Amino acid sequence: MHVAILIIRSIVCKEQAETFTDELYVTFNGVKISLPNMTRGQTEVLDDEFIFEGASQLSLFENDGDHWYDRDDFIASNTITEAPLDTTLEFKSSSGNALGAHYALDVSVTAGP
Ligand SMILES: [Ca+2]
Ligand SMILES: [Ca+2]
Prior knowledge:
Helix content is 0%, strand content 58%. It is mainly β. The strands form two sheets. Strands 4-1-8-7 form a four-stranded antiparallel sheet, with no helix packed on it. It has a four-stranded antiparallel sheet with strand order 3-2-5-6, with no helix packed on it.
């Protein structure tokens, strides 16, 4: 089977969505992973791995508990393919309740086992 591995190596908060701290998670290929809480200027080293095939959206959200009266806020997505990659992806909200939020994630994609 042809698979690839996405690794999220770090996250930088360039601008936060909330007044105090952003509670973050990403979704990718049907999997949800919580990230550290972040404030502007903060950097966190990560080591989150996802195994996947084909292409999938890596999406960043700000967690509000996903209540009916206050859903989680989508920030942005980037499409990840199996092509080998070692780069920094920008996640910048352009609309909605997380408007203004801006994150940068260092990611790499390598061929699977
Ligand atoms: Ca929140
Ligand atoms: Ca919300």
